[in-house]
Structure formats: C-alpha cells, structure tokens
Design goal:
Helices cover 39% and strands 12% of the residues. The chain has a seven-stranded parallel β-sheet, sandwiched between helices. A two-stranded antiparallel sheet has the order 2-3. A hairpin with a 5-residue loop joins strand 2 and strand 3. Bound molecules: zinc ion.
Length: 368
C-alpha cells in the first residue's frame, strides 16, 4: 500500500457536545398549543452524522483528534458578562431551560457550552502552537448569535469570539479575522467586536433572514472598530457561483487589507441546498471550493493559519457531505466519498446569475 499523504489539519471535537439538550425547544419545532409536540428545531442528528462520516471515511484517523477541555473561565469572561455566565449556570442547575431568546439548554448546559467554546480553543492551541496550520472544529451548540450578555438562536456562548480572546491572551496573535458564511447573520460576533479594530468580522448571509433587520452593509463598526465589520447580505437563492464571487471579490480583498494573523471561518452549513432554515443552494462542491479560497487566502496572508469552525447546519442528509467536503479541502485530503445529491443540485443554475451579479456590484460599490 502506498502511504497516505500527510494531513495539513487536525480535528477538534468532543462527544458531550452532541449531548447538548435542546428539548426545552427552539425554533419552528418548539412546542406550541396547536402543534403536536415533537423534535426540537435543532438536534444532534446533523452533526452526529457528519462526525460518523468523518470516522467512517477515515478522515478522523488521518487528521488526528485534539484533546478538548472546557474553555478557560477567563476566556469566557473576556467575551461574556459574569452575570450572564451565572445565569446560564443557574438555568442548568435548575434542570434546563432557555437562556436568552431561543437558546435552550439542559441540566449539563453550562458544561457543554463551555466545552463547545473549548473545542474552538483547542483548535487555536493547535494552529497557533505546535500543530499543523489548519484545524476543523466541530462544536455544539453553535455560537455566532450569542452576544456579551445573552444567548440567542441556539447559541449559548460565542465559541469563536472566546477562541479569538484565547488566541490573543495566550499566543503571539494581535489581529484576527472571522469570516462567517452561516446563512444567518453573525450578529453576536459583530456586536462583541463592533468597536475592536483588531478583529475583522465579516458575515455573508441571506438578506434580512435571521435575525430580522440585522446584517445591513451600513453597519461598519464604531470607534476604533470603524470599517472592521463587513456585512454581505445576499439574495435568497444564491448558490456556489454567488458565494464564490462574494468571497473572491469582497472577502479576500478585505482580509488582505486587514492582515490578520489568524483567520477563523464561522462555517455554517445552513446555506446548503437542503437546509430547512435557509433558502440558499450551496452544494458540497461549493463548500469545498469556498474552503479552498480561504485556504489560499490564509496561505498568502497569515502563514496558512486557518480554523474552520462549525456554526449552524440543520439538514441531517446534507450536512455530513458538505462538512466532509470542507474538511477535505482544509486538510488537503480526498476520501473518494461522492456527494450523493450532486446530480440534483449541481448545474447551470449554480453559476452567478445576473440579479446576483448586480446585487454584488452594489455591495462592492457600497463597501469599498
Ligand atoms: Zn445559521
């Protein structure tokens, strides 16, 4: 047998993240007087199946899994108010409930949310320390809607913001960039770093989707953070062509101007063609190509330091294949696993469409 090429990335994951209990309800699945009680809107299935595919395809073994611990309390406190941490702990002690708006937790909720932030911190320890320059982080719950003092939209702690503070506190990293391509606006991350000129926050999202009236291109940051926030709202129905054009024409030039020492992708997989909570058309091949663009940008700008950390993604059918494609592009490996939905979702309609071109042109005029 010929030896497998070495992986250029590691994997950060913790089993308990899949035990995150959302049965207190979130989103369209929450119990209502006029709907039969059923599964919550966010559950472990999509991520469980992604992890299973990483295992079954040999990717987990090739990448090597990092040791993950709860995020250090001082890193949580660098992002979140102390009274919010106490509130999350109290709700968990009481057996579970909701922290903020639509962010349910169970009785181990604090510990598991701290582990989710710890998953991304472990990726920081690896890429900023002795490991390969890239890492894939698979936390749950997601983080990008959580702000300093409240949870929101299935997010308890802002995992990536905590990881940014961890990198700045413990490594020779002053400037970071967060590229959020979750289909929903990364409002929590935007708010946390809105006045921080050292952290460039970029969000590509479906225009005026969730949260409503959030994610306008006019929001550019304030004070020292002025121009260090970039919102790229895209019309519903965008596929691979539109996302790639937005990355190449807006995101990469912004990264180039900011010169970060570490790039973290808030990799929501809910812009996929099969997601129940988004109306976009991105394919597994699209996520592979998008990740490759960021790999190239990180190589050119910051010595390749790149973390791709999962955010949303709710299709148990497609998240595994979209996630695997991103991991393969990140790690520079190919497993031979084919996307079983490619024939259905790849095609000419994936090319950048004229109305998407003009929306993008307007954004380029506005943002540059
Ligand atoms: Zn999302």
């Amino acid at each position: 047998m010929s030896p497998e090429p070495a992986s250029r990335a590691t994997l950060a994951y913790h089993e308990l993240c899949l035990w995150h209990d959302t049965s207190a309800g979130a989103g369209p699945g929450e119990v209502d007087a006029w709907i039969e009680p059923g599964a919550p809107g966010e559950g472990p299935a999509a991520r469980r199946r992604l992890k299973s595919l990483l295992d079954a395809s040999g990717v987990t073994r090739r990448l090597g899994a990092l040791t993950v611990e709860e995020a250090p309390r001082e890193c949580l406190l660098a992002v979140h108010d102390g009274h919010y941490l106490e509130h999350v702990a109290a709700i968990a002690r009481a057996g579970g409930g909701t922290v903020g708006h639509n962010a349910p937790i169970g009785r181990r909720g604090f510990e598991i949310a701290a582990l989710a932030a710890g998953v991304v911190c472990a990726a920081v320890d690896s890429v900023c320390g002795p490991g390969p320059a890239r890492a894939f982080a698979l936390p749950r719950p997601a983080g990008h809607h959580a702000s300093r003092d409240t949870g929101m939209g299935n997010c308890v702690f802002n995992n990536i913001a905590v990881a940014v503070e961890h990198a700045r506190a413990h490594f020779d990293v002053a400037r970071c960039a967060v590229v959020d391509w979750d289909v929903h606006h990364g409002n929590g991350t935007e708010a946390i770093f809105y006045e921080d000129g050292d952290v460039l926050t970029i969000s590509l999202h479906q225009d005026d989707w969730y949260p409503r009236r959030s994610g306008s291109p006019a929001a550019r940051g304030e004070g020292p953070g002025r121009l260090a926030n970039l919102n790229v709202p895209l019309p519903a129905g965008c596929g691979d062509g539109a996302y790639l054009a937005a990355l190449e024409e807006l995101v990469v030039p912004a990264l180039d101007r900011h010169r970060p020492e570490l790039v973290i992708v808030a990799c929501g997989l809910d812009a996929s063609a099969m997601d129940p909570f988004g109306r976009m058309l991105v394919t597994a091949a699209g996520f592979r190509a998008m990740t490759a663009v960021l790999v190239g940008a990180a190589e050119a700008i910051c010595g390749g330091r790149l973390i791709v950390a999962l955010e949303g993604g709710y299709s148990p059918l497609y998240v595994p294949f979209c996630g695997l494609a991103a991991v393969e592009a990140l790690a520079g490996v190919r497993t031979g696993v084919a996307d079983p939905y490619a024939a259905r979702y790849e095609g000419e309609f994936q090319a950048l469409q004229p109305h998407q071109r003009s929306a993008l042109n307007q954004l380029i005029d506005l943002l540059n």
